[in-house]
Each structure stands twice: as C-alpha cells, then as structure tokens.
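Table S7 (text form). Paired inputs.
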Amino acid sequence: MQGRVGHTDSHLPGVKCVVDTCHYHASDDHCTASSIEIQPRNAKNTEETDCATFAPK
C-alpha cells in the first residue's frame, strides 16, 4: 500500500522504526518516509500517541 507521504531512498536520521509491517520500514529499523506525523496533539503519555504516517505494506 502506498502511504500518504513521500517515500525516499534514504532514511530519516535519528528516527528508529521497528514496525516491519509499515510501507516505510527499511532494514536496520530505519524509516524511509519523507516526513513523519505523530498524533494526537493533546497526548499526555506514550500510550496515547500514534504514528499517523504508518501505512501497511
């Protein structure tokens, strides 16, 4: 499945993604999305956050 942000041939420096079912997941747990979006705005802890960039493979 194609995601809603661009896909790059390189990875986002400093971003680790272990979700190997994501369209943007690359070897060594790198993210190849051109940008990432984390939601929601008013999250109060880790459990309330969500990677809105995720797109299934």
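Next pair, protein 2 of 2.
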Amino acid sequence: MTSRNGVAGDHDDGKGNDEHSDKVAIPRHLGLFGCIWHLVGLIIGTGIFISPTGVLRGAGGSVGLSFILWIVCAIIQTCGALSMAELAVIMKKSGGDFTFILQAWGPLMAFIRLWVLEMIIVPSGGAVMIMTISSYLLTPFFQCEETPVVSLRLLGVFFLLFIVVINCISVRLASKLAGVLSITKIVGLVIIIITGLHNLTKGKTEHFDDSFDVASYDISLLPTGLLSGLWAYSGWSVVTSISEEVKNPARNIPLSIVISMSMITMVYLMANVAYFTLLSPTQILTSTAVAADYSVQALGISWSWLIWLFVAMSALGSFNSSIFRSSRVKFSSAREGHLPEILSMVSISRNTPLPAILSCVLLLVYLIEDDIIALVEYLGFIDVVFESVTIAIVPYYRWKYPDIPRPYKVPLVIAFLYMAALVFIAVMALYAHPVRNSIALLTAFIAIPVYYAMVHPKYKLKCIRPISVKTTRFLQKLFYCVRQEKKTF
C-alpha cells in the first residue's frame, strides 16, 4: 500500500519483475532507451522551430545574449527534471505533478493542478501540435495562397485519431513509434545543422559580429525569453509521470534525463547557430516559423519541403508522447477519485489504459479555436506557479520524512536553484503583465467549486452517484476493461 506520505510498500522492486503476468495491469515496459525516446519525442517538438523568435526577443535582439538564455533555460529545466525524478522514485506512482501534490499538499491543491494541466494546458498545447503538423504538411502545396482552414482541421483530426488508436492498441507500439519519430526529428535537425556548418565554412558569420551589442535593454522582456526557452525544453515530465511503467526507475529515470537534456541542449545550440548564418536578428524577430524561413534560403524552394516534413514529424512525435503522458495522468487521478472511475480502468485484451486514452479525443473541441497559442501563453504563468508548488515538496519531504528510502537523491541545491528560477520568472511575469496573469490565476481557481461539487466525498452532489455508476458499467462493458488487478507501484 502507499500511505499518505507517499511511502510505497515492498511488493514491487520497480525493476520489472512480474509475478502475476496473467493479471490485468499496465506492464513495466520502458528501459533506459524507451525513456530517452519519450523524452526526446516530447521535448523536441515545435519549440526549436518556433521559440528562437521569443528567446531573441527576450534577449533584446542580442544574438550572444540569446545563446546565454538558451543555456540558462536548459540548466533550469534539467534541475527541475532531476528534482522531480526524486519525487517519482519516492512515491512510485504514475501521475507526475498531480500525484506529488496529492501526497504532499492534499486533494484540493492536486485537483487545481489537474484542472489547469489536463483541462486547459495539455489539450490546448496538443491542438497547437496538431495544427502545426497539418500546417507544415499542407503549406508546400499552397505556396501561392492561404491554406484552407477546413483542410488543416481535417488532416489534424486524422493524425489525432491515428495517435489515439496506436496508443490504444499497445503501450509498446506507442513507445516504438516514439523512438521512430525521435530519430526522424533528429535527422531534420541534423540537416539544419549540417547546412549551417556549410554556411559557416563559406564565411556566413556577419550576424555574429558584435553579438552582445545592445544599446538599451528592457528587463521586462526577460520573461518572454525565459518562458519561450523553457517551453522549448519542456516535456521532460513524461518520464516522471509514468514511473509505474519504467523498469528500474531509480536508475533509468534520472539517467535518461541527463542523457536526453545534454543531447537536446547541444542540438538546440547548433540549430540556432545555423539559423543565424542565413537569417538576421531582424528576420528572426519577425518570423512566425524560423525553420521554414531558414529552409527556403538554405535548400531552395524545391527542397525546402524536407525541413517542413521533418518539422511535421517532430510535432507528431511530441503529440504521441503527450497523449502517452496525459492518459497516464488521467488514469492516476481517476484511480484516486478525482476523475470519473472509468478512466482508471485497463483494457483486458490490450493492457492499455484505453478509456483514459480515448478521452484525449475531446481535444477535438480545441481545434475549433483559431488562436490556441494565445491560450497557451495566457496560462503559461499558472504552469510556472504550480511547478513552484510542486518542487517545494522536495525540501519539505527531506524535512518531514528524512527516513524515507531514497534510491535516487538529488542534491538540494539543484532543487533550490530550480525553485528560485521559477519564483523569479513568476514574479517578473506578474510584473510585466499584472492584469493578464491575475486573470489567469482566477481561471485556475475556478477548479475549487468544481472540486467541492464533483469530487469532495462530503460535499459533492449526491445526484451524480447513480448516473456515474450506470455510465461506468455501460462503458466498462463497451470497452471491455476493468480496474487494474495488481498494484504496479
């Protein structure tokens, strides 16, 4: 059993030993490379192809300062990932931030985090990925005219259903797809890097002259640069959200983070060098798709479609890992009673959290909205606030539960560094946009009345229970699923 302080029992050593393989449960199927594929698959999405504009804007147009911001954001996110890895290893349950906050700060705070993450940020971010895939695949066919919105959405629906079906069929198949798409996106970035190195050999270095020359710098721009860079490196929570599916998590989770973040940082820096060999700071600041603008100049119109294709595959890989993570968070939260019971069930024939995966189809609603990116930016501040709340659990648990077995233990200075960075970014963002971010916080707190009406055991509406039971039993028969028959944590 797992107690309220997050200490798990000794029935599972976390190394993939499976004494009752005939019982219905999500298997431990991810080794070190599986974790790396999911990390690379989710982190390298659309960020490196779009974020350079935001990072450069936050650097005041300074090329040199923009590279410093990229490195700083990599350090911040790596510190966060390694700190969260300790919580994942201690608590052993999947669910990521939701599980950590539930164990440490209680069900109400966990529900607010779940509300913001799974009801707004994840689906709207997924819609951005879906529309990016459609846009990059269709734009080459509509060079002289605007791409029809209907075509973009229809193609988006196709890819959404494709990824959902893959994840429903097999957890291993979804992980293999993550590996294949991770390789394709790395190939796309390698093409950008090689062409950039070729440009350097031809003397295309004029945009690196006076790299740190900034006439005047507005400090209020810094949150824009940091949030853009952090977004490009975000996604590492995929491995801290699926700890029940990782073999030997105490080793594979932190090691995969170190390997993946080191590799991604190097690739990002080299890709930015390539961009600046052909694009001036002014061109990047006014660009809505830096990789697309670069590919046209580097490869010409006849071959630029290669980069467009790889960007689309990159977004598809991120979307696959995003669905993988999101379904596990829903599965874990439903298991704790924070979402409908049906989402906590596992397919008898497939051993996948099929209802939780199918619930991701609701993302279709977000495809109706044209300006989804504005929603993501609007709520990015809330994400930073709740990350601060989550990371505070690390020092809190060190103080309150010093004797908990910690197979992996992050140095406290790393956790404090990440916490300080998040608090700084939150304060600066609130200073730069006080009204917008205050409204965003109020949006998060809408979850409070929803929690008491739908979740709280004492105050939730009594009329919901009979309807919920009948609906659950019907869907259980329809999807041929049951609650997991053994503990995997």
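Residues 32-205+217-325+369-447 form a domain with the Amino acid/polyamine transporter I fold (CATH 1.20.1740.10).
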